[in-house]
Amino acid sequence: MEPQLSHQVTDSVVTVVIRHPAKRNAMTTAMWRALPPLLDTLARDPGVRALVLTGEGGTFCAGADISTLRDAPEEAPALAVAAEEALAAFPKPTVAAVRGHCVGGGAQLAAACDLRLAEEGALFGVTPARLGVVYPASSTRRLVSLVGPATAKYLLFTAELIDAGRALRTGLVDEVLPEGELDKRVAELTRALVSRSQLTQAAAKEFAAGRTDRDAHWAAQARGSGDVAEGVAAFLERRQPRFTWSVSASG
Question: Which of 46, 165, 174, 210 is within CB 3.0–4.6 Å of 248 for a Cys-Cys bond?
Answer without folding.
Answer: 46
